[in-house]
Write a structure and sequence with these properties.
Layout (H helix, E strand, L loop, with lengths): L3 H6 L13 E5 L2 E4 H21 L15 E2 L2 E2 H25 L8 H20 L2 H8 L6 H22 L9 H11 L21
Antiparallel strand pairs: 1-2, 3-4
Length: 207
C-alpha cells in the first residue's frame, strides 16, 4: 500500500511511545513494538535466505557471517533490514489509515478480522502439532499466541485497507494505465539453466 496519504506520512514516523511496551517505530498512537520488530525482521531474513537456498545461491550455511556478505548494492544484512523496516513502516501507517477511513465500523469488518486471525492461528497450530508447541516457538521472540494474533490482526487490516483503496470499486482503484506503468517499470525476465550434479539416473544397455 502506498497511497498519496501513506507516502506523505511515512517520513514522519518516529521511534518513541508512551505505551507500557515502547514502540520502536510509531505514528501517533500506532506503532510496532520491539518483539514485533524482531519477529518480522527474522521472518524477512528467513524468507530471503530460503529464496536464495532454493536457487543454490547462498554459498554457505545460515550463519551471522552469511549476512555480512558484500553485494553490488551493499551488505546483505543492511539491505534485508531496510526492506523489512520499510514493510513495518507501511504496516504502522496502514493501521492509522484503517482507523482514519473508519473501516473498523463497516458492518462485518470486526467479525471478518476475527475469523481471519483464528484461521491463521489454527493453521500455525496444525503445522506444529499443538498449541503448546506454537507458544514454545514464539517464546524465542518473547511472544505468545496472543501476541501473534495482534500481528496477524495488523496484517489483515493492511489487506483490508488495500482492498478499500485499490480493490474493485475502491476509493482509488488501479487503472489499466497504472498497471501498465508498473509492469513497464518492474518487469524482469530471467532464464535459468539447472545442471543437476546430485541425482544420477540408472541407464540400461541402450542408454
Amino acid at each position: 500500500v502506498c497511497s498519496s496519504d501513506l507516502c506523505l506520512i511515512l517520513p514522519t514516523l518516529s521511534a518513541c511511545s508512551d505505551k507500557s511496551e515502547p514502540f520502536v517505530m510509531s505514528y501517533g498512537t500506532y506503532g510496532i513494538t520491539e518483539k514485533q520488530y524482531t519477529y518480522w525482521l527474522s521472518y524477512y531474513k528467513t524468507t530471503f535466505y530460503s529464496a536464495l537456498e532454493d536457487y543454490a545461491q547462498t554459498g554457505e550455511e545460515y550463519t551471522e557471517q552469511f549476512w555480512l556478505t558484500e553485494t553490488d548494492e551493499g551488505v546483505l544484512w543492511e539491505l534485508t533490514r531496510i526492506k523489512a523496516e520499510d514493510y513495518m513502516k507501511k504496516l504502522v501507517v496502514s493501521l492509522y489509515l484503517f482507523d482514519h477511513y473508519g473501516l473498523d465500523d463497516i458492518e462485518g469488518a470486526r467479525e471478518q478480522i476475527k475469523i481471519s486471525v483464528d484461521e491463521c492461528i489454527a493453521d500455525d497450530i496444525a503445522a506444529l502439532g499443538a498449541r503448546s508447541r506454537l507458544n514454545e516457538a514464539l517464546s524465542a521472540y518473547k511472544m505468545n499466541i496472543s501476541d501473534l494474533e495482534d500481528m496477524y490482526r495488523i496484517e489483515i487490516k493492511r489487506s483490508m485497507l488495500e482492498e478499500y483503496l485499490y480493490g474493485s470499486g475502491g476509493k482509488t482503484p488501479l487503472t489499466d494505465e497504472d498497471k501498465e506503468a508498473y509492469y513497464n517499470e518492474t518487469y524482469a525476465r530471467v532464464k535459468h539453466i539447472l545442471i543437476n550434479t546430485v541425482d544420477k539416473y540408472v541407464l540400461d544397455d541402450e542408454g
